[in-house]
Amino acid sequence: MNIILMGPPGAGKGTQSEKILAKYNIPHISTGDMFREAIKNQTKLGMEAQSYINSGKLVPDEVTIGLVKERLSQPDCANGYLLDGFPRTIPQAEALEKLSQEIARPVEIVVNITANKDVLVERISQRRVCPSCGNSYHLTFKKPQVENVCDGCGASLIQRKDDTIESLNVRLDAYENQTKPLVDFYSEKGLCKEVDGLQSIDDVFKNIQDILDEVK
Ligand code: ADP
Ligand code: AMP
Q1: What is the pLDDT of residues 127-156, one digit of tens each?
Q2: Which residue of 20, 71, 169, 192 sits 20 to 30 Å from the alpha carbon of 83, by its own alpha carbon?
Q3: 93, 102, 133, 135: which is closest to 6 by C-alpha?
Q4: Mind listing the pLDDT tens digit for each residue in 197-207?
Q5: CB within 8 A of 118, min separation 6: which ones?
C-alpha cells in the first residue's frame, strides 16, 4: 500500500504509524524522524535543518524533497510506503507525484487525522519522547510503565525542543498556511479520507484500518 498520513502537529500521526506498521508491515517514512536522527548524528543535513525545526518552521522544500527522493528509491519501498509528515507543501506534493510515478507506486490513499487547537496544545505539551530509540509517550494517554523511563530501551524520556508553546504556534501557522491546502489537492483526486483524531488512540486506529482494508 502507498499511504500518506496527514494532520496537524499532535494529531496522532506518529502514534498511528506505529500501529499501522505493526499490522501492515510497510516502511514508515517520517521526515521529522529522519531530520531528528540527522541532528542527533550532527550530519550536514542535520545542521542545515536544526534551526528550522527548533523554531517550528518548515525545512526548505529542496532539502526535504531530496531526502524523500533518496529514501523512496530504496528497495524496501518497492512494496509500498507509509509517509508521515510528508508532503507538507504543494511543491512537495507535486514532487511526490513525480517520484511516486518513477517507482511505479502512486499514492493510493491519504488519511487526514483532524483535531482542534486546544487538543493539539494539550497533546504536544504532554508528549515525551525517548532520545535513544524515538518511542513516543503521553503523560496521561500513553504512559510509560515506569515514570519517565522508555519501555523499549530504558533511557530517560525528554520533551522535544520544538514542543514548546512558541514553536507549536509557528508549526500550527505553517500547517494552516502551507499544509492544509493539501487536503483540497488530494480531495480533488478522490484520495483523501478524514478520520476524527479526537477519539481514543484505539478508536482512531479502528477507523484507519477500515479505510486501509478497503484499499487492499
Ligand atoms: P504527531 O505525530 O501527529 O505530531 P503524535 O502521534 O506524536 O502526533 O501524538 C502527539 C501526542 O498525543 C503524543 O503524546 C501521543 O501519545 C498523544 N496521542 C496521540 N493520539 C492520541 C489520541 N487519539 N488520544 C490521546 N492522546 C493521543
Ligand atoms: P514532525 O516530527 O512531523 O512533527 O516534524 C518536526 C519538524 O520537522 C517540523 O516542524 C519541520 O520543521 C520539520 N519537517 C518534518 N517534515 C517536514 C516536511 N515535509 N517539510 C518541511 N519540514 C518538515
Answers
A1: 999 999 889 999 999 999 999 999 999 999
A2: 169
A3: 93
A4: 999 999 999 99
A5: none
Burial code of 152-184, b = ≥16 C-beta within 10 A, e = fewer? eeeeebeebebbbeebbebbbebbeebbeebbe
Determine if residue 194 is left, alpha or beta; phi over 0 gives left, psi from -120 to 50 gives alpha, anything else beta: beta
Residue type, 151: D
Amino acid at 1: M
What is the atom index within ligand 1 of the atom nearest the CA of 11? 3
Name the residue with cell 520544538: 162
Taking CA atoms only, the protein residue closest to ligand 2 atom 1 is 32
3-state secondary structure 23-89: HHCCCEEEHHHHHHHHHHCCCHHHHHHHHHHHHCCCCCHHHHHHHHHHHHCCHHHHHCEEEECCCCC
Ligand 2 mutation pick, 37, 51, 88, 113, max ligand atoms within 8 A of CB: 88
